[in-house]
Amino acid sequence: MNRSPSLFLVLCAALAAGTGCLSIKTEHEVKPIKIEMDVNLNLKVDKEIDRDLAEEQRKPPRHLDEIKAMIDRKDVGVDAHGYLVVRGKVSDEERDILDDVNASRRVRMREIAEKTGATRSAVELRRAEKMLERLPAGSLYEKADGTWTAKE
């Protein structure tokens, strides 16, 4: 009986000594991140979006007054992708108008993406930024982080 505690202590001491000698070597390779930004692509997208917005100003949507009224009432805002989103109460007829406008925008954003080689999402985000510049003060819009606010 006396030997088992001392044997146990010897084994523990041997294990402790062995673990002290254990060495683990890790290697980490840090690689630089390559970021390429195609300035020409961004310029092409901006040019097409500017052309699209100018055309929309020259030939506004059929229901521009109704759209402006919904935006002024804060029942409609512009999301982070440049589409009109119901934020309050709208009639079925107003909802149909918004659906038509958004459908036209989706088609146009797809066309710009195909023409420039950008993704549709990138085109939409850029168009939303440009639309924000044109929105009147007080208009609701969605920020990139998903929160909604009124334009100052």
Which terms would index this structure?
8% strand; alpha+beta
Question: Describe it for me?
Answer:
- By secondary structure, this protein is of the alpha+beta class.
- It has one domain.
- It has five helices and four strands.
- The chain has helices spanning 3-20, 39-58, 64-72, 92-116, 120-134; strands at residues 76-78, 84-86, 140-142, 148-150.
- Strands 2-1-3-4 form a four-stranded mixed β-sheet.
- Strand 3 and strand 4 form a beta hairpin.
- Helix 2 (39-58) packs antiparallel against helix 4 (92-116) and helix 2 (39-58) crosses helix 5.
- The N and C termini lie far apart (85 Å).
- The mean pLDDT is 86.
Write down the overall mean pLDDT.
Answer: 86
- Poorly predicted ranges: none
Helix content: 55-70%
Largest sheet: 4 strands, mixed
